[in-house]
Amino acid sequence: MRPAYQRRVPLATLLLLLLALAACASGGASTGALSPTPGTAHPPAPAHVPAGWAVAYGPHFSIAHPADWVESRDFTPASSATAGASRTRVWLSPPGGRQTLLISEDDNADSEAIQSGCAIDRKATIAGLRVSAFRTEGGARNLGFYSDNGTIYTLVYLDPSDPPAMQRQEDAIFATFRPEFASPAC
Questions:
Q1: In sequence order, what are the beta bridge partners of 66?
Q2: Partner of 162 for a Cys bridge, out of 15, 53, 127, 166, CB 3.0 to 4.6 A?
Q3: Is residue 85 a contact partner of residue 75, using CB atoms and an 8 Å limit?
Q4: At how many degrees (to 10) do helices 111-118 and 11-22 cross?
Q5: Which candidate, 171, 159, 28, 163, places its Cα nearest to that of 90?
Q6: HEC per residue, 99-164
């Protein structure tokens, strides 16, 4: 019998995740240093950035990573396909390697998507945030933070077979995640 958290992943959450992972096959739309939209203020920087690391900025988050890791991103405007939410995805890859981490931000998510994510039974703490945690059928680990302003942040470990040293590096990167909207909806 499967644990309850594997049985109760809401359909809306799975659909959002599948849309995010579908873009992984394309590798993202662009590469290079990330920054907020020109003319907008930076979201807050991570509270602690290890020496020699860079900071990537999404529209409403920041995350630190080793300076030699490659960043790529894409943006999807709000539409019926995204349930009315605009979506920014950022992938992080070690030098010469494949994409191993995904940070997805869905702005203006509807209350059903927020409630579905909050209903996931399994919880974890990352970067000081209480998040909903689940695995996909392929084994990818997902951590979802649902803010009270309608922004959903999803942190995804894309490859469950990464060796322990890589997993520790990925954990250290995700530990620097800082959302601009940090008040939880759950």
A1: 53
A2: 166
A3: no
A4: 100
A5: 28
A6: CCEEEEEEECCCHHHHHHHHCCCCEEEECCEEEEEEECCCCCEEEEEEECCCCEEEEEECCCCCCH
Q: Name the average pLDDT for the chain.
A: 81
Element (DSSP H or E) covering residue 70: strand 70-76
Cα 87 off chain centre by: 11
**Per CATH, which fold does 4-179 belong to?**
Protein Transport Mog1p; Chain A (3.40.1000)
Q: What are phi and psi of 46, to 5 degrees?
A: -55, 150
Is 87 within 8 Å of 104 (Cβ atoms)? yes
| Residues 80-90 pLDDT 10s | 777 778 899 99
The most distant pair of C-alpha atoms in the chain lies apart, rounded to whole Å, by 52
d(CA 60, CA 124): 21
For the chain, how many helices (H) and strands (E)?
4, 11
pTM score: 0.77
Instruction: Please check whether residue 126 is in contact with residue 143, taking contact to mean a CB–CB distance below 8 angstroms.
Output: yes
Q: What is the pLDDT of residues 8-48, one digit of tens each?
A: 444 344 334 433 443 333 333 333 344 444 445 678 899 99
Domain residue ranges of the chain, discontinuous segments joined by +: 4-179
- pLDDT band at 112, cuts 50/70/90? very high
